[in-house]
Amino acid sequence: MTGGEVHDSQVTSQLIGLVGEAEYLIADKGYDAEDIREVAQNHHMIPIIPRKSNSKKLNIEFDHYLYGLRHLVENAFARLKHFRGIATRFDKLARNYKSMLFLACSFIWCKTK
Question: pLDDT at position 113, please?
């Protein structure tokens, strides 16, 4: 969990290390950095990250279909943001925030069943 002023790409390498096994790393243009791509490839993942418009390198491993499925995860985060305490992070302690996150996820899961 990072502070509100820290972009998630700053801790992406650590997050990739926490993931057990995965074939792909799917992310948006905000994560288009060579070090992130290298870390993913070192963990035997294929990075599905679109290149920024000013990039001079080709993106031959980019899969449009897999990238299109990323919206499912984005929709889950959008539903989580309906819970005001999660969207604004009122909790000072990470454990309290995490417990509220679990509670919100269980509410969302119960609604979909």
Answer: 56
Does the CA dihedral 29-30-36-41 come out positive or negative?
A: negative
56 and 32 Cβ atoms separated by less than 8 Å: no
Instruction: Name 39's Cβ contacts closer than 8 Å, sequence gap at least 6.
Output: 12, 13, 16, 17
Which pTM does this prediction carry? 0.69
Question: What's the chain's Rg over C-alpha atoms?
Answer: 16
Check residue 112 and give its pLDDT: 67
Of 64, 49, 63, the residue nearest 9 (C-alpha): 49
pLDDT given for residue 56 in this prediction: 81
Predicted confidence (pLDDT) per residue in 11-37, tens digit: 788 888 888 788 998 888 888 888 888
Question: 75 exposed, middle or buried (CB, 10 Å; 0-12, 13-18, 19+)?
Answer: exposed
In the beta sheet, which residues pair with residue 46?
24
